[in-house]
Structure to design on (127 residues):
């Protein structure tokens, strides 16, 4: 699948300890995105932040938090992102969901085939 051109980026901001049916919410989101065939999903753990509660959560040693901020980023076609939004409505009780238009580029080797690796590199496309 090509992801070159116009696409949508979905960013979901939640807490690390948020759950969905006794499973980490971020894991449920990633697994559902995979099941629905979205191009890729990445979870990023924040080192510090606050949300609606206005409580600052931090990873600093003297004030360890058990609920650090987590961001899940998914990029795919407009249609696939739009189809995934109802799944988030079901799972995300508290958090922030952002959707924006992006220009996506898939990087390939000089022969036009995907670069395969056993290790993900940030300069290569997900998917």
């Amino acid at each position: 699948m090509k992801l070159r051109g116009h696409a949508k980026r979905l960013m979901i901001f939640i807490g690390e300890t948020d759950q969905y049916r006794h499973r980490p919410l971020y894991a449920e989101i990633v697994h559902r995105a995979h099941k629905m065939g979205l191009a890729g999903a990445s979870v990023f753990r924040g080192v510090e932040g606050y949300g609606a509660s206005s409580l600052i959560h931090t990873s600093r040693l003297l004030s360890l938090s058990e609920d650090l901020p987590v961001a899940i980023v998914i990029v795919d076609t407009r249609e696939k992102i739009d189809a995934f939004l109802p799944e988030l409505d079901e799972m995300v009780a508290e958090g922030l969901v952002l959707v924006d238009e992006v220009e996506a580029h898939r990087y390939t080797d000089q022969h036009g085939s995907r670069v395969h690796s056993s290790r993900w590199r940030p300069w290569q496309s997900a998917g």
